[in-house]
Amino acid sequence: MAKDKPKISLLLTGGGARAAYQVGVLKAIAEWYPRVHHSPFSIYCGTSAGAINAISIACYASCFRLGVKKLEWIWSQLHSRKVFNASSYGMTSYLAKQWFARLQADYHERPPFGLLNNRPLRQLLNQVNNYERLEKQILAGNLHGVSVTASSYKSGGSVSFFQGQKELTEWDQAKSKGRRTLITTEHLLASSAIPLIFPATRIGQTYYGDGSIHQLAPLRPSLRMGADKIFIIDLINQKVSERDHTKAPGLATLGGHLMDTIFSDTMTADLEHLSRTNTLIQALPEHEQQRLQLKNVDYIHLSPSQSFGLLAQKYYCHMPPMPRALMRLAGVSPSDDAAITSYILFEPDYIHALINMGYQDALEQDTILRNFLK
Does 42 participate in catalysis according to the annotation? Predict the structure, then answer.
């Protein structure tokens, strides 16, 4: 990688099954480059399902198209039973074990709670990810840094586990820490452990959950690793119609509202802060910028043009019977707000629709994205 070339960070946010949209965007971008071209990104930062995508393509930083092609293949082969145990026996026995464990005496260690058993996801990640390639890409200079953000249930703060060049240093800021480590499947499972849905993951002596929960500054890992530009592929759910505000919200509506809040609100605030900072830096003379070691950080914030809810309603019937029955018991149905469903609908037709949506959205922004990634 040329030393004078700007460091561009790829920032992938969380959103469960919605993260297939990010694959479509990256697929469109990969088509601009030759087959053996290195990645336009030298920094990868991910949270939740976005972390899984980030690590997968970071392993192929020296051959961007190959990395994206493999990522697309993984998602195209995905279905619910490869992410969580979706059989009637498997779900019933898992929930029964969770219930019995909480009837035991306090001195027995209780497993972390989750409605769905994500052991199949652990097996899948171990099969498809070659974590040794990350260090090889770093040593070869193809990769400056990569981070996976999780939420600590012990401290109540956000922890970004990162791996990268020697000059990268750890950080301790308000509700945010950066810790150097060798990234493994455990970090990805921790970052993607959506509260109540998937169980928390233990790393060392601490349990971690979805990285979006306490992530007050989503841009911080990219900035701390020296990004000159940040390309953000967000998974904000577009609202296409207003609800009847005179009708009391049900469990599905409340759950969807909370999920969307966890995964999207802090990004807007952090981008506003970055924009104000850039404006202040640009107002300073160039020699002052150099003396204070300040730089303008450009960014593009790409989000879906359509609602995930409409697609989730369309493909809701593709979900296996047992998870669908569990959601029915919780008050979630196709006629309700489908925001919750859109996070856990790991079914081929829904995933293909999301990939296609991301691909088309990237094509519509073709000129802007090409100029940004120069």
Answer: no
